[in-house]
């Protein structure tokens, strides 16, 4: 897939309607951080969220058990969402493959074409430089962009 081109709406919708469990690498307990807001909205929308943060002593975020890494998760994961630097995405892709995830999703600004190629070669769907929280609500605001003021 050419990740320099816009994603097909059906591709994004297919991912968001098929995944149930999302591991969020880079989840933060800080309510002012964007990752916290995305975690909250996805959880409230009904996704089984698994926060990933290696910070010592951090046991839960919003009542959800925090895991230090993907390998520590004790249940199947459908999607790995990444709130890390682009250069970290390749290693996270390797971990996502190792745990049997079906989707690798890089948050806005997280782009690594080598990681995307690795994940896709292993059978994962890949999205980069997008936010699932925004994509969930896109059908509601997209048509309004054409309205006059």
Describe the structure.
With 149 residues, this protein is of the alpha/beta class. It has a single domain, classed as NAD(P)-binding Rossmann-like Domain (Rossmann fold, 3-Layer(aba) Sandwich). The protein has 5 helices and 7 strands; from the N terminus they run αβαββββαβαβα. A 5-stranded parallel beta sheet has the order 2-1-5-6-7, sandwiched between helices. The chain starts with 8 loop residues before the first helix and ends in an 8-residue tail after the last helix.
Blueprint (SSEs and pairs):
Layout: H1 9-18, E1 21-25, H2 34-45, E2 48-52, E3 60-61, E4 64-65, E5 79-82, H3 89-98, E6 103-106, H4 113-121, E7 125-127, H5 132-141
Parallel strand pairs: 1-2, 1-5, 5-6, 6-7
Antiparallel strand pairs: 3-4
According to CATH, the fold-level topology is: Rossmann fold
- What is the gyration radius calculated from CA atoms? 15 Å
What gap, in angstroms, lies between the N and C termini?
37 Å
Label the structural class. Answer: alpha/beta
Q: Tell me, what's the shape?
A: globular
How many β-strand runs?
Answer: 7
Relative helix content: 25-40%
Portion of residues in beta strands equals: 15-25%
Our count of domains comes out at 1
Biggest sheet character: 5 strands, parallel
State the CATH superfamily name: NAD(P)-binding Rossmann-like Domain
Order of helices and strands: HEHEEEEHEHEH
Question: What is the overall pLDDT average?
Answer: 92
Number of helices: 5
What descriptors fit this protein?
single chain; 149 residues; alpha/beta; Rossmann fold; 5-stranded parallel beta sheet; two-stranded antiparallel ribbon; 5 helices; 7 strands; 34% helix
């Amino acid at each position: 897939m050419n990740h320099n081109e816009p994603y097909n709406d059906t591709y994004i919708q297919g991912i968001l309607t098929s995944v149930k469990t999302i591991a969020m690498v880079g989840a933060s307990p800080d309510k002012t951080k964007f990752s916290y807001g995305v975690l909250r909205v996805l959880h409230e929308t009904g996704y089984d969220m698994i926060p990933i943060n290696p910070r010592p002593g951090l046991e839960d975020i919003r009542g959800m058990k925090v895991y230090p890494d993907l390998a520590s998760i004790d249940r199947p994961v459908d999607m790995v969402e990444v709130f890390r630097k682009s250069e970290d995405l390749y290693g996270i892709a390797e971990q996502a493959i190792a745990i049997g995830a079906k989707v690798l999703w890089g948050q806005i600004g997280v782009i690594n074409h080598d990681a995307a190629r690795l994940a896709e070669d292993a059978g994962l769907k890949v999205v980069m430089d997008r936010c699932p929280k925004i994509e969930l609500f896109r059908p509601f605001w997209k048509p309004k962009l054409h309205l006059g003021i």
